[in-house]
Amino acid sequence: MATSADTYVVRPAEDNWISRLFDNKAFLIFLCMLPAAGLLIVFLTYPLGLGVWLAFTDQRIGGRGEFIGLGNYYWLWGDPIFWMSVWNTVLYTVVATVGKFALGLWLALLLNHHLPFKSLLRAIILIPWIVPTVLSAIAFWWIYDPQFSIISYVLVDKLGLLDSYINFLGEPWNARFSLIFANIWRGIPFVAICLLAGLQTISPSLYEAAMLDGATAWQRFKHVTFPMLMPILAVVLTFSVIFTFTDFQLVYAITRGGPVNSTHLMATLAFQRAIPGGQLGEGAAIAVAMIPFLIAATMFSYFALARRKWQQGEGND
Amino acid sequence: MHRFNRRDTIKIGAGALAGTLLGSTALRAEIPTADVQPPDLPIEDGAQLTVLRPSKFVGPDEDIFRSNTAKFTEEMGVPVKLEFESWEDLRPKTAVAANVGSGPDIVVAWSDDPQTYVDKIVDMTDLATYLGEKYGGWWPLAERYGKDSETGNWIAMPIGASGGRVVYRKSKLEAAGHQSVPEDVDGFLKMAQDLQKAGTPMGLALGNAVGDANAWCNWVVWAFGGKMVDDEENVVINSPETIEALKYAKALSETFIPGCLSWLDSNNNKAYLADEISLTQNGISIYFAAKNSDDPAIQKIAEDTFHSRMPIGPVGMPTERALVVNSMIFKHSPYPNAAKQYLRFMMEKEQYSPWLEGCLGYWNHPLQAYDSSPVWEPEKVKPYQHVMKDSLWDGYSGKLGAASSAVLADFVMVQMVASVCAGQSTPEEAASEAERRAQRYYR
Predict the structure, then answer these.
(1) Which residue among B3, B116, B263 sits closest to A148, beta carbon to beta carbon?
(2) Cβ(B146)–Cβ(B157) below 8 Å
(3) CA–CA gap between residue B294 and residue B12 (Å, rounded)
(4) Is the peptide bond prior to B327 cis by the omega test (within 30 degrees of 0)?
(5) In B, which residues are within 8 Å of A259 by CB distance?
(6) Among A115, A277, B33, B40, which residue is least crowded by beta carbons within 10 Å?
(7) Residue B164 contacts by C-beta under 8 Å, 6 or more apart in sequence?
(8) Where are the beta strands (DSSP E) in chain A?
(9) Does the pLDDT value for residue B22 go beyond 50?
């Protein structure tokens, strides 16, 4: 009786163009990359490219736009409201990011200790980040209300520390810092949880060695914790800067850019001009003008904070 | 502390539906009509319609609109799909429908949207002529918003308008030494100062409030003869009249309750119902929210609440603004006759009267015959009766269209007034900045 091995005949590969094509490594790489590339092109490159193109046109909602070159940018260059939105965006991003990182790092260090109900506490501090932004924005809108603010109510009516209610949103600087506070409140959990994850990867033996060498708590933080956290710090900082720079919901829900445009961020101004105002081209130009800032912030985070030598505790070159 | 917001208003408004309908049925026949033949509009075979309109502000608006639509389907055999869009999203959605040439057959759009999409919508002259002849003619504002600014042909059919009037607490006005709201701007300022001295200030929105801030900021500039553009669409906002208006607005704003610079549309409603302010400008919704409240304290506020027209400035005529809901039929609709029949049906008194009455005076009628509607009989509702008769239009005194719409949406007028009231700009600087911004849109 013939065995299956006897009857099995290996058929030589056909030498046609399809098999040659699929044997080609470059083609296979291209083919495997195609779905990802397709998604990126459809959902990222095309909208971005369209936005960049619209910024060079005078497209309005409901009408056809024509190419006007740098016309929108020329107009924005002389537009004080645009420059105020740039200033507000930079201020908002810098102050909110510093606040989020200072408080987030502090919270992460606290949570890294052995505390009772540690898991529960960690879950609770995530709440501000989990709550939909619009809901927290509406809550802050009430908290900052000129007539119904709970803060003013306590300070004026209950404690008698102030004579009149605080004008949180009716005065430009009050409004800016009120929004920054809301953004910090919302962003701390993200920073704290990410940094906590980073803290837990630091080997306890490093701290033990430092303590044996007589290092103080501050020296342990400065020479062990901080350098070891730097890689994750760079990544979290990059994300945080991008999220803050492009924030829209908090500002739109709480102030709509007021009073008198003094809290408009570039994102809210772009929306205001493009959708309610109908000037799609101008709105796109404002949105495109955000790109250099975002690239600069990302580059700073990566190249300034992620230098390997610094991370490893060596001197900067 | 009573907290009251727009959602409460909507809920309360819905509760008023049944009573209003029952009370008004007997009086509905009083709407005078002429014997006019409707235009011959044979409904296309297999017709079906999609109608897009703004979401309700007072509950009965949506409920009665739905029941009237169901009645149309029953009588005419045309299925109609009703879509309700939030106020802020209606305009972008209308724009998309116009641009891509598909979507709803009928849009009950905002004010000057039809003038923006003139070449994409169906001529309405036959229908508007019929309704005008049957119901005693259209009010001037309805004609303005219904016609193409260039040709004068009817391209839309305004179905209602909401106007801002003075909403005030009579007892507090009297305590401040005034029996009624003065009809001139100087008297109005004096009244505001007296209210402030009495510790019961007024408040008007100065934030980016789409309805309330645009209403009073346009009113004050127009009252002194200022305007964004002239009849030829030249930007003329930077004028001595505007400067005077801004000086007046600054003086008036100094009497406001603190915080008005951040007020959005619902803030004045909340502050009024919480007894924080004694006077504001608003639609009739505050009054009905208070009247239908379960809270006795708020019901007392309703009893003490009265309305009056905004005072008249040096121009010598009313200068209030109106928010118009303006229906139009897209050319991409395969069933234009069915769409016209639908709009005709909704405007006939058998359907329109219950809707008008159910909306409690929030929407004002475009056809003059509905002046006889019982909804306008109560003293407290009467000041809202002629919103479409003598209000001015967006972009006054220019044409309606994309530029007037964009200037309004970008809060050019509001921010001009607000920057002066906030002390950020002098009247001259603010008028100059508004001129610069408006020229961009009217280029």
Answers:
(1) B3
(2) yes
(3) 9
(4) no
(5) 206-207, 261-262, 418, 422
(6) B40
(7) B211, B212, B215, B216, B219, B281, B282, B283, B310, B320, B321
(8) none
(9) no
Quote helix, strand, coil % in chain B, to nearest 5: 50, 15, 35
Q: What is the pTM of this model?
A: 0.84
Identify the CATH assignment for B38-163+322-390 out of 3.40.50.300, 1.10.1370.40, 3.30.565.10, 3.40.190.10: 3.40.190.10
- Kindly indicate whether the ipTM for this predicted assembly is greater than 0.90, answering yes or no: no
A260/B419 touch (CB, cutoff 8 Å), yes or no: yes
* Residue B244 C-beta-side C-alpha neighbours within 13 Å: 14
Task: Say if domain B165-320+410-441 classifies as CATH 3.40.190.10.
Answer: yes
Q: How many domains does chain A have?
A: 1
Q: Is the pLDDT of residue B27 over 60?
A: no
d(CA B443, CA B436): 11
From-to residues of CATH 3.40.190.10 in chain B? 38-163+322-390, 165-320+410-441
The tally of CA atoms less than 13 A away on the side-chain side of residue A63 is: 18
Cβ distance A50 to A34 under 8 Å?
A: no
Q: Does A168 touch chain B (CB under 8 A)?
A: yes
- How close B208 gets to chain A, by Cα (Å)? 6
The side-by-side arrangement of strands in the sheet containing B305-308 is B279-282, B165-169, B305-308
A146 and B259 Cβ atoms separated by less than 8 Å: yes
Task: Provide the residue range defining the domain that includes A140.
Answer: 79-308
Helix (H) or strand (E) holding A47: helix A46-54
pLDDT of the residue at A297: 81
Those residues of chain B whose CB sits closer than 8 Å to some CB in chain A are 1, 3, 88, 91-92, 95, 98-99, 116-117, 206-208, 257-264, 267, 270-271, 274, 276, 402, 405-406, 409-410, 415, 418-419, 422, 424, 433, 437, 440-441
Give dist(CA B282, CA A7) in Å, integer. Answer: 93
A146 lies within 8 A of chain B by CB: yes
Among the partner residues B259, B405, B406, nearest to A167 by beta-carbon distance: B259
Q: Judge: B274–A175 Cβ closer than 8 Å, yes or no.
A: no
